[in-house]
Sequence to fold (50 residues):
Amino acid sequence: MIRFPDEGRAYAEYVTGPATHLAYKPASLSHVEAATTTLAPLTALQVFEK
Fold:
């Protein structure tokens, strides 16, 4: 999700966004593992922002 939590509000196969909002996937992780690593931090961020 690009620009979380302000814009977007959707998942997509292709997106554009600021380079500062992107990161390389570590070679040691599968695509599924890398995708799931963002869920807990984003949930925690929402709690602190509210």
Notes: The chain has a mean pLDDT of 81.
